[in-house]
Amino acid sequence: MKRIVVVGLACLVVTVCGEKEITKKMLVGDWKCTVSRQEAKWENGAFQDFDDPIIKKELITFKMYEEILLMGKSNDSESHWHTIPIPSMKSLSMTKDFKSYVNYKMEYISDNEFKEEGISEFITYPSTKKKADNYS
After folding, report:
1. Which residues, including other chains, have CB under 8 Å from residue 44's CB and lie 6 or more apart?
2. CA–CA separation, 37 vs 50, rounded Å?
3. How many helices (H) and strands (E) does the chain have?
4. Residue 118 pLDDT
5. Per-residue pLDDT for the chain (136 aa), expressed as one digit of tens each?
6. What is the pLDDT at residue 64?
7. Are 54 and 36 in contact (CB under 8 A)?
8. What is the pLDDT of residue 66?
9. Within its chain, how far is the Cα of 27 from the centroid?
10. Pairwise CA distance, residues 130 & 114, whole Å
11. Long-range Cβ contacts of 128-134 (<8 Å, 24+ apart)
12. What phi, psi does 85 have (nearest 5°)?
């Protein structure tokens, strides 16, 4: 069984007057983000130490579509747009070969800053499929 935990952090600077919570309206637009990603692998029955963070700058765009907040990269013609839960979400997906758990949240820091944090756990199970014998 393989397990991988992925931690991602992004701090975005926003200009807001007087709001004390994150809203869809304040997010709409382009944001210059710093993204940090770390992974820890499951070995010998335990998670190992996180690897060194991979830190990069990205231009992230939030937009509305029929009252649904979407996040993607507007400068990427192949961008994958996905919904963003505010302020948090937990989800679980399972099949016989795979399990995915996501814990996501956005945290208000100040009138001009907030933090987005996502922790994901991906587990793949060894294949249990056996090859069928061909008989003529």
Report:
1. none
2. 10
3. 1, 9
4. 87
5. 555 555 444 444 444 445 478 888 888 888 888 888 888 888 888 888 888 999 988 888 889 999 999 988 866 666 788 888 888 889 899 998 888 888 989 888 776 677 888 888 888 877 655 444 443 3
6. 92
7. yes
8. 92
9. 17
10. 49
11. 128/96, 128/97
12. -80, 135
Element (H, E) at 121: strand 113-124
Note whether 117 and 6 are within 8 A (CB). no
The partner residues of 13 in beta bridges, in order of sequence, read 113
Q: Which two tokens stand for residue 17?
A: 């007057």
Rounded CA gap, 17 and 136, in Å?
A: 76
* Helix (H), strand (E) at residue 73: none
Length of the chain: 136
Question: pLDDT tens for residues 80-102?
Answer: 888 888 888 898 999 988 888 88
| Alpha carbon 24 to chain centroid, angstroms | 17
Q: Are residues 16 and 24 in contact, defined by beta-carbon separation less than 8 angstroms? A: no
One-letter amino acid for residue 78 of the chain: E
